[in-house]
Structures are given as structure tokens and as C-alpha cells.
Amino acid sequence: MEVVILGGSRPIGKLAADAIEELLRRKPDAVLGLATGSSPLPVYEELAARHATGLDFSRASGFALDEYVGLPDGHPEQYRNVIRREFTDRINIDPANVHSPDGSAADIPAACDAYEAAIAAAGDVDLQLLGVGTDGHIGFNEPGSSFASRTRIKSLIEQTRKDNARFFTSLADVPHHVITQGLGTIMDARHVILIATGAQKAQAVRDFVEGPVAAICPASVLQFHPHATVLVDEAAASAL
Ligand code: GLP
């Protein structure tokens, strides 16, 4: 695991965008793993700016990490809409090649299996962007998630619902259930870039970078990944 401490969100966004640009030049049909939350926003900002000056996404595809269960289609906080708004509508990726778990499927387990099959059929994720929750979750793999887990339905713990309540009118509106790629799914990505900024992430960063590899801290599984890059600002690195 490579940990890079940078001066703030802008240089973090640029460094992650450099890796994605290099990947796209080498492999124009690259498969990108897309994350929501505030952490990857500087990367999307930077990539949109680079697209405006010629970076081509026309042959790329994308797979979202996770999705809320039960939000009505078109809800602004449905992650499939967040990813469009924050990123894919701002570049020339084919919308048909941007995939999300189906959080309104009648048969959720079947939708999860179909999502896994779609990722495999695309040849697996080349570069996965990740944030980290204050409890060490990645995607929505809460503490206790199996390291072998695949895409499945999960319940959110109260802290995660509170952390995400800022995007909703009230805590009561935050869904209790989500679909998330599993830790095993995430570990199949060829390169993982995790971004964490701010003092509220310092403990989680310390736990997953320097602590034991343990299901209580899901991001710690990345210690076993052959190519994991952790980009942090000084506040998020302050407990290292
Ligand atoms: C949510 C998302 C995660 C994200 C986390 C942290 O729980 N499912 O993928 O990493 O929030 O979000 P933020 O980057 O806004 O701190």
C-alpha cells in the first residue's frame, strides 16, 4: 500500500486524474470504478477540465460502487444520478456504458448477481476510486463485512446514516438498505485509489493503514491489495 500525503484536495484530484489519464492513454476502453461521496469530487472536477481540453472517454466504461435501496427513480440522491451529475454528464463517456446496481429491482439478489456478471463481462475494473467512511467502510461494506464478499444488499449502521444525512432533508429520509460491491469485488480491481481528506477521517486512515487487517475495519483489506494507492491530506494523515 502506497500512502501519499498531499497539500489538499486540489493536488489529490490532480494526482488521481494523472493515473486515470495515463490509464486511458494506454487503454482507451478502460473500466473505471466510480465512487460517490465528497472525497472523489476533486478528481471528477479535474477530469472534466481535462476532457474540455481533449481527454477522451468515448471508449471507457464505468461501474458505480454502490447504491441506495428503495429511493424512487430520479431521486437526486440516488447514486446513479449523483454520478451522472458530478461526473459522467461532464465527459464524453457513453451513458450506456455507465452502470450502477439496481436499487429498485424487485429481485435484489438477482440484481446483485447480474451486476457482478456485468463487471466480469467488462473484464473487471482497471482503476477503482474509493472514499472511506469514518468507521472504515469502503463502498457500503460496513464493519464486519466479509473480505470475500461480492455485490449484495447491506444494512447501514446508524453512524453511516448520520454521516450521509447531510445529503437528505432529515435523518429519517436516509435509506436503511443499500447494494454495494463486496470487498472481494473491490479487491479484484487492478488498481485502487482511496482518497481521504479532513480530520474526521484521521482515525479511520490510521486504522486501515497501520492497524491489523481485520473485518472490523473493512478498508484494512487493502493492505493485501497488490496495487493500492492512498491519497490523503495532512489532516487525514494526522494520526499516522
Ligand atoms: C458513503 C459512500 C462511500 C464513501 C463514504 C465517504 O458512505 N457509500 O463510498 O466513501 O460515504 O463519503 P465522503 O467522501 O463524503 O466522506
UniProtKB/TrEMBL annotation:
<keyword id="KW-0378">Hydrolase</keyword>
<protein>
    <recommendedName>
        <fullName>Glucosamine-6-phosphate deaminase</fullName>
        <ecNumber>3.5.99.6</ecNumber>
    </recommendedName>
</protein>
<comment type="pathway">
    <text>Amino-sugar metabolism; N-acetylneuraminate degradation; D-fructose 6-phosphate from N-acetylneuraminate: step 5/5.</text>
</comment>
<feature type="active site" description="For ring-opening step">
    <location>
        <position position="142"/>
    </location>
</feature>
<dbReference type="GO" id="GO:0019262">
    <property type="term" value="P:N-acetylneuraminate catabolic process"/>
</dbReference>
<dbReference type="GO" id="GO:0005975">
    <property type="term" value="P:carbohydrate metabolic process"/>
</dbReference>
<feature type="active site" description="Proton acceptor; for enolization step">
    <location>
        <position position="66"/>
    </location>
</feature>
<dbReference type="GO" id="GO:0006043">
    <property type="term" value="P:glucosamine catabolic process"/>
</dbReference>
<dbReference type="InterPro" id="IPR018321">
    <property type="entry name" value="Glucosamine6P_isomerase_CS"/>
</dbReference>
<dbReference type="InterPro" id="IPR004547">
    <property type="entry name" value="Glucosamine6P_isomerase"/>
</dbReference>
<feature type="active site" description="For ring-opening step">
    <location>
        <position position="135"/>
    </location>
</feature>
<dbReference type="Pfam" id="PF01182">
    <property type="entry name" value="Glucosamine_iso"/>
</dbReference>
<keyword id="KW-0119">Carbohydrate metabolism</keyword>
<dbReference type="GO" id="GO:0042802">
    <property type="term" value="F:identical protein binding"/>
</dbReference>
<dbReference type="GO" id="GO:0006046">
    <property type="term" value="P:N-acetylglucosamine catabolic process"/>
</dbReference>
<feature type="active site" description="Proton acceptor; for ring-opening step">
    <location>
        <position position="137"/>
    </location>
</feature>
<dbReference type="InterPro" id="IPR037171">
    <property type="entry name" value="NagB/RpiA_transferase-like"/>
</dbReference>
<dbReference type="InterPro" id="IPR006148">
    <property type="entry name" value="Glc/Gal-6P_isomerase"/>
</dbReference>
<comment type="similarity">
    <text>Belongs to the glucosamine/galactosamine-6-phosphate isomerase family. NagB subfamily.</text>
</comment>
<comment type="function">
    <text>Catalyzes the reversible isomerization-deamination of glucosamine 6-phosphate (GlcN6P) to form fructose 6-phosphate (Fru6P) and ammonium ion.</text>
</comment>
<dbReference type="GO" id="GO:0005737">
    <property type="term" value="C:cytoplasm"/>
</dbReference>
<dbReference type="GO" id="GO:0004342">
    <property type="term" value="F:glucosamine-6-phosphate deaminase activity"/>
</dbReference>
<feature type="domain" description="Glucosamine/galactosamine-6-phosphate isomerase">
    <location>
        <begin position="14"/>
        <end position="223"/>
    </location>
</feature>
